[in-house]
Specification:
By secondary structure, the chain is α/β, with parallel strands linked by helices. The protein folds into two domains: 79 residues; 249 residues, P-loop containing nucleotide triphosphate hydrolases (Rossmann fold, 3-Layer(aba) Sandwich), CATH 3.40.50.300. It is built from eleven helices and 13 strands. The strands form three sheets. An eight-stranded mixed sheet has the order 6-7-5-8-4-9-10-13, with helices on both faces. Strand 11 and strand 12 form a beta hairpin. The chain is globular and about 70 Å long. It starts with a helix and ends in a 16-residue tail after the last helix.
Length: 362
């Protein structure tokens, strides 16, 4: 097989519109080799984001594309994936056992950030990734209840670090595991910062592809500490379509840009409401706000989520939507947004600093 044929196969794959939401070959590694009986080919497609849930469908789809583009009778296609560490801000290096940390932020409270964070984490887990969730909302930790872990406590084997708790295949830690749920967190900024650092750096995360950090709303001490001291591969901004929420989301986006943290995208929550009685769909909080913010900032809109009472009921019961109704339309939206987020990160520059050993001259 000539090099031209190999090049044409790769060009055909990269130019194809893929009918799987959030899937892109932009950053994929593609290798083409002659098959045992020409005109057959061996094609290996290595993606940088998890696709375990649709791996077989992708294999069949890419095989059809190759045969159609080249006239091959058969195409031996193998689709694999591996999440690699990506570049972080400044001189920071990724945490041990954590390849990528993604913050989930919002400019203001009440936009559904924590609900979005837990469902995104569970969606990435379902897609095959090893995922952790750090609840950094010190004043209002909600992940213990959302994950059905109320009343549980993390174990410390050495008196200095924590073993993360687990739910639905997800590793998790939160200040909510360490204090009574009825105890108000009347802490000043330095105490909040110390608590956050202890949770982030003293949890024994185990071989994570992604660690999602559920931030408190706003642009205060915790966000500043995170952006200056924690190696972030990226951040996603959660907003609602209304103008007031967009103002605060815009401020949050600009803050992360100023501290050189990559903004992976925007998630518009409570985009529309569908009446359970008549099926009428209405944009209660305005329409198109997330897209406008995306257009003006040059940051992609990762997806839109509806205002739906089922999401609230499921998280309150400790079984978030992605696990309580895994094949339903709401779970499909979270899965698509999670994949789009992972694709954006996969296309980002790789971490190179940890690849070189530290040289000490004595």
């Amino acid at each position: 097989m000539s090099e031209v044929t190999a090049t044409s196969i790769e060009a055909a794959l990269r130019s194809e519109t893929i009918p799987f939401p959030g899937v892109s070959l932009q950053s994929a590694r593609i290798s083409v080799e002659p098959g045992p009986e020409p005109p057959s080919f061996k094609v290996r497609i290595a993606l940088g984001f998890p696709v375990t849930d649709i791996q077989s469908q992708l294999t069949g789809f890419f095989g059809q594309v190759i045969c159609s583009a080249t006239g091959a009778q058969t195409a031996d296609v193998e689709v694999t994936w591996q999440v690699r560490a990506h570049a972080v801000q400044g001189t920071l290096k990724p945490l041990p056992e954590v390849r990528n940390i993604i913050a989930v932020a919002s400019g203001k409270g009440g936009v559904g950030k924590s609900t979005t964070a837990v469902n995104l984490a569970l969606a990435l887990t379902r897609q095959g990734a090893r995922v952790g969730l750090l609840d950094a909302d010190i004043y209002g930790p909600s992940q213990p209840k959302m994950l059905g872990l109320d009343g549980q406590r993390p174990v410390s084997k050495d008196g200095e670090s924590f073993e993360p708790l687990e739910a639905y295949g997800l590793q998790a830690n939160s200040v909510g595991f360490l204090v009574d749920q009825n105890t108000p967190m009347v802490w000043r900024g330095p105490m909040v910062t110390q608590a956050f650092n202890q949770l982030a750096f003293s949890t024994n995360w185990r071989d994570l592809d992604y660690l999602l950090v559920d931030l408190p709303p706003g642009t205060g001490d915790t966000q500043l500490t995170l952006s200056q001291g924690v190696p972030l591969a990226g951040v996603v901004i959660v907003t609602t379509p209304q103008d007031i929420a967009l103002l605060d989301a815009r401020r949050g986006l600009k803050m992360f840009e100023k501290v050189n943290v990559r903004v992976l995208g925007i998630i518009e929550n409570m985009s529309t409401h569908v009446c359970t009685a008549c099926g009428h769909e209405e944009a209660l909080f305005g329409a198109g706000g997330g897209q406008r913010l995306s257009d003006e900032s040059g940051v992609p809109l990762l997806g839109q989520l509806p205002l739906d009472a089922r999401i609230q009921r499921e998280t309150d019961s400790g079984e978030p939507t992605v696990v309580s109704d895994p094949d339903g339309p709401l779970a499909a939206k979270y899965l698509a947004i999670a994949r789009a987020t992972a694709v954006q990160l996969a296309a980002a520059p790789r971490d190179r600093k940890s690849a070189f050993p530290k040289i000490v001259v004595e």
